[in-house]
Specification:
Lipoxygenase-1; 4-stranded antiparallel β-sheet; alpha+beta; about 50% strand; about 130 residues
Length: about 130
């Protein structure tokens, strides 16, 4: 026979566990993202930044993490990839050359979810994707 106090403790534990799991299910979950930069000609420099909102594992609170996206298109056939994770991504990346165009693509778990282009430094590619915090 289970002692009444021990039974009460078991019931409280199960109730708290159910409450915790229900709270976690309603929060945003992080996904894997690839920011892919390519260009229509070799030698195009690009510079920008992405901010990924991430859900904290234990607290569930949102944490912003910045990702520098910079480099040079060295080959038209070989894009450059930058990895991050989160539930909301905001990127602004600009072609730093007066000629050519860069393309910025956002892939979630390998699937294309957003694309933007930048023809010049004053017209950056802007991507916003996911659940806004």
């Amino acid at each position: 026979m289970i002692h009444p106090q021990r039974r009460t403790l078991h019931l409280l534990f199960v109730a708290n566990l159910i409450s915790l799991l229900t709270g976690c299910a309603s929060q945003s979950t992080n996904a894997q993202f690839t920011v892919r930069v390519s260009g229509n000609s070799n030698g195009l420099p690009f510079d920008g930044q992405c901010t990924a909102q991430k859900a904290g594992f234990w607290s569930g609170e949102s944490v912003a993490q910045d990702l520098d996206v910079e480099g040079t298109v060295t080959s038209v056939s070989q894009p450059q990839d930058f990895e991050t994770s989160g539930y909301f991504i905001y990127c602004t990346v600009a072609n730093q050359s007066a000629t050519g165009t860069i393309t910025v693509e956002l892939l979630q778990d390998g699937n294309l979810v957003a694309r933007a282009q930048s023809p010049s430094p004053d017209k950056p590619a802007v991507i916003e994707f996911g659940q806004k915090p």
